[in-house]
Specification:
Layout: H1 5-8, H2 13-16, H3 36-40, H4 53-63, H5 67-80, H6 87-97, H7 104-114, H8 121-132, H9 136-152, H10 157-177, H11 181-194, H12 199-211, H13 215-228, H14 235-245, H15 249-262, H16 267-279, H17 283-296, H18 301-313, H19 317-330, H20 335-345, H21 351-367, H22 372-384, H23 388-400, H24 406-418, H25 422-433, H26 443-452
């Protein structure tokens, strides 16, 4: 994992500041999403109406790999209703919605050259793609270009409204990444002006307001988000996460207690509160919360996974295995579950358990072959099973895969220390100890190892 265990649990990425929520169409998926609604629903009402039979026919021809005929029917549709997107844009969207993500960019480039140079959507689509790929500078330039075109665009009021939302949503994300919180607030309020019923916008506004040291207003935005979407976390949970991000642990715990009092059966509330208690070292209280969570959310992967982690941290390895196996039954390919089981079982004196650990580690590496933490676990488990050569290959993959979580760094440090490379082992551990992102499962063991170096 490039992030810690806690950030892999199902808390909203929005509240943890980990990514863009609702960034527009997601292209390149394996399954097709090519329907009249997805293709022209942002331009017209009732896109499945017989008035748009040419669109339906274009989709049929496109699905039959006859792009030339598909374009012809799109041209007829746009000629009948000029409020539709330009033909070039529609062709690009058809590529993406049919799962051919690699063809979207070339199609958009062609669209801009042919009929879409003054349409904002090609630039918005490219900007959103750049943002998802963390190409922030490119995204910013494209959003700026789109914004200029939106100012003069008057062809379709429905499209223009959605363009404004997408442009300011993207700009707010860029401002947040750069910690320009006043700019983020301004962009978010423009987004909300266009769509006051968007819970994600309200949640993001709450985050920005907390970062501007206006917690009361931020909490009110979180309350509004919850009112708009019942699946949004309790407002006190959202506030607690922001207090934690700001290093205000006392305020975070107070907010978590209020959330627990209000919403004691809610999975997100229970998991977030338990995580915070574990991080704070209050294991007794965490056990109480997790006991309640298991009773009220018996089918929650996150509850059982976190329960297994808590038991492991307290040295109750049998209980940890029981909880983690329950997690595995709920999500057989989950990389955190596989990683935890492999690391847990390899410490057993029973050779059969160590072989099971190797099975879980190999499974994780097969399913998540580019993940550095998965590969570091595999290397460690192979080494413990006497397979040094294979461990070296897995270690090489781990190093090439990117940054490690604190627990991954600890395992790597153990291997370096065993090779008497104390200097690099010490650097890894010192860095891991300063990483406050989520739960460091083996933190006490890492401290003990660091003291020997």
């Amino acid at each position: 994992m490039t992030s810690s265990l806690a950030t892999r649990l199902a808390l909203p990425a929005l509240l943890l500041g980990l990514g863009l929520v609702g960034s527009g169409p997601v292209y390149g998926q394996a399954e097709t999403n090519l329907t009249p609604e997805n293709l022209i629903g942002d331009s017209v009402s009732a896109p499945g109406d017989s008035r748009y039979n040419d669109i339906a026919e274009a989709i049929q021809r496109f699905n039959n790999r006859d792009q030339l005929s598909a374009r012809t029917f799109l041209e007829r549709a746009v000629q009948k209703n000029p409020k539709l997107a330009p033909v070039g844009v529609l062709m690009a969207k058809m590529q993406g919605l049919s799962g051919n993500g690699a063809a979207v960019r070339p199609a958009l480039e062609q669209a801009v050259q042919e009929d879409s140079a003054n349409d904002p959507e090609p630039y918005l689509l490219l900007a959103e793609d750049a943002l998802q790929g963390s190409r922030t500078i490119e995204a910013e330039a494209l959003f700026d270009k789109a914004a200029k075109l939106i100012e003069t665009y008057e062809n379709n009021a429905k499209r223009k409204r959605l363009f404004i939302i997408r442009a300011y949503r993207g700009s707010a994300e860029i401002a947040s990444r750069r910690e320009k919180w006043e700019q983020a607030e301004s962009d978010l309020r423009t987004w909300i002006e266009q769509d006051p019923e968007d819970a994600a916008a309200q949640s993001r506004l709450g985050q920005a307001l907390f970062m501007l040291d206006r917690p009361r207003e931020g909490y009110e935005a979180f309350v509004k988000a919850k009112q708009l979407n019942a699946d949004t976390p309790n407002a006190f949970v959202s506030a607690a996460l922001m207090y934690g991000r700001l290093g205000k642990q006392a305020e975070a715990m107070e907010a978590f207690k209020k959330a627990f009092a209000e919403d004691a059966a809610n999975e997100t509330t229970l998991v977030a509160y338990a995580q915070a208690l574990i991080k704070a070292g209050n294991m007794a209280e965490a056990d109480m919360v997790l006991t309640k969570a298991r009773a009220s959310n018996a089918d929650s992967l996150n509850v059982w996974l976190l329960s297994g982690v808590a038991a492991r941290m307290q040295g109750d390895l049998k209980t940890a295995e029981t909880y983690l196996m329950r997690s595995l039954s709920l999500a057989p390919s989950n990389r955190d579950v596989l990683n935890q089981l492999a690391q847990l079982l390899v410490e057993s004196p029973d050779q059969a358990d160590r072989q099971r650990a190797l099975q879980f580690a190999n499974m994780g590496a097969q399913l998540h072959q580019n993940n550095p933490d998965v590969n570091i676990t595999l290397a460690w488990v192979l080494l413990q099973n006497g397979q040094g050569a294979q461990a070296t290959n897995a270690l090489r993959n781990a190093i090439q895969g990117g940054s490690l979580s604190p627990d991954g760094s600890y395992l790597f440090a153990k291997m370096l220390a065993a090779r008497n490379d104390k200097a690099n082992a010490k650097k890894l551990l010192e860095s891991a100890m300063t990483n406050d992102q989520g739960i460091f499962v083996q933190k006490e063991q890492a401290k003990a190892l660091l003291e020997t170096l």
